[in-house]
Amino acid sequence: MEKVLKPQRLDANLRLKTAADEFKHWLITFEDYLDALSAADMEPDKYKVLTNLVSSQVYRYFADVEDYDFGIEQ
Question: What one-character DSSP code corresponds to residue 30?
């Protein structure tokens, strides 16, 4: 089931007006994916999964702090 819920890599152009909407939608699918992994008795490192599912352009906004909550809030 996790493969079905796995979100696409987030590669939003953060300068566009639609970036916030794209991120909001992606975040919902990402959190559903993490929930599915947890339900399957997997406890993923959320930060590592997050960095794996964003492009390098998005990652640069939270690269200096290796903290999941901070990365999501940025």
Answer: H
Short-list 46, 51, 45, 48, CA closest to 9: 51
pLDDT in tens, 23-62: 899 999 999 999 988 888 888 888 899 999 999 988 888 8
Give the residue from 6, 9, 71, 66 showing the smallest Cα distance to 40.
6
End-to-end CA distance of the chain: 29
Beta carbons within 8 Å of 73's beta carbon, 6+ residues apart: none
Q: Which pTM does this prediction carry? A: 0.79
Per-domain residue ranges of the chain:
16-73
In angstroms, rounded to a whole number, what is the distance separating the alpha carbons of residues 29 and 58? 17
